[in-house]
Amino acid sequence: MTDSAPRSQPRTPWRAVFGGSIGNLVEWYDWFVYASFATYFAGAFFPKGNDTAQLLNTAGIFAVGFFMRPVGGWLLGRFADRRGRKAALTLTVTLMSASALLIAIAPTYDQVGYFGAVVLLVARLLQGLSVGGEYAASATYLTEASRPGGRGFVSSFQYVSMTAGQLIGLGLQILLQHTMSDDALHSYGWRIPFVVGAVGAAVIFWLRRNLLETEVYTEEEDHQGRDRGTIAELLRHRKEAALVIALTMGGTVAYYTYTTYLTKYLSNTAGMSKSDASLVSFCALFLFMLLQPLAGSLSDRIGRRPLLITFGIGSMLCTVPIMTALSHADSFAGALLLSLAALVIVTGYTSINAVVKAELFPTHVRALGVALPYALANALFGGTAEYVALWFKKGGVESGYYWYVSACAAVSLVVYLTMRETRDAALSRGRADAPAAPGKQRTTAV
């Protein structure tokens, strides 16, 4: 960028990528450590008894957080469309910091009975509110800050940062498992990652204060001022909103199955130790993270639909054999290869789902259009994935969950086969994806 570039433009090539995605890391670190450390704190908030029953209780609260995401998607999506992407990104990370701190200091069942579980529930509601807005604000920011022909690559960093947050959470879990006794982890060690999350979110808040707004947003800042980010305006794009829900359904179930639920599945079903199961997840997620930009870049060349279709077919046909094989995995290498195979398939969805959704909507309702339908789909399918899996297990028909994941993928596959290609969609009225006018530079991230 030159010195004459407008203030709405990032001054350095990767500033938009870093600023738009770094908060995602902390958001999803906090979101993920709840799931990955649940095996340690489940007994702290509920009466002692059957381990699966305790996990069901914590998974139920985990799912409740997802049902708050549509509220966050509506409120913060509207906020992002009316006040800007930067303002929304700053607000979401503030809420996440508060929720992590609440979990870190929550009293246990032995201390105050079920009041501790109430505190845990309130924290999860705040997390759901925050993540419901973060996904859309980040997706729209990264998409709008990308040059034409590079949106898939840049937007893929949303899942790079999300996965990095999960890896940090898992890495910390592995570190604590090797430096603390099992009794200490169950007693107080599980609070450490939430303290780390609260501090990390405070640091990201400071970094995001200097984030610059996208040019696409500022160009249309005065367009339909009263209708920006409203439900009435979103209803004018109800076909696109329904499309977001349908194309998300299969992807979100598969994603949470092989990320947040995988460690519990390997431990609770395959019989692996908690430390080995965590290490399998860590290695698989690390390789999965590296695949995201490669797949995003590929979508810029061949389109979004081919990757989505590949995911749909792969997930529909391979979920049952992969999950069945994982249930009998008796070695680290075998579990890792199977987990990685599943995540390679899921990459066809994760690497581009954010940009596809952002490309469906016009600027003045883009954040809300991405946030609310996506959050609804996650509440119905992603947030309940772990609970449904444990419910099948408790009922003695765990394999039923494998078929459930396959069926969700089949529904989304129909959408992938019939939807329009979005790669060349215009993000700004009257500009399409043509070169910028003389004297007017774009906000670019690559």
Automatic annotation (TrEMBL):
UniProt source species: Streptomyces javensis
The protein, known as: MFS transporter
Main subcellular location: membrane
Keywords associated with the record: Cell membrane, Membrane, Symport, Transmembrane, Transmembrane helix, Transport
CDD domains for the chain: MFS_KgtP
TM stretches of this protein: 28-46, 58-76, 88-106, 112-136, 157-176, 188-207, 241-258, 278-295, 307-326, 332-356, 368-389, 401-419
Alphabetized PANTHER family for the sequence: ALPHA-KETOGLUTARATE PERMEASE, PROLINE_BETAINE TRANSPORTER
One matching Pfam family: MFS_1
Subcellular location: Cell membrane
Family: Belongs to the major facilitator superfamily. Metabolite:H+ Symporter (MHS) family (TC 2.A.1.6) family.
Keyword Transport attributed: yes
Domain of life, per lineage: Bacteria
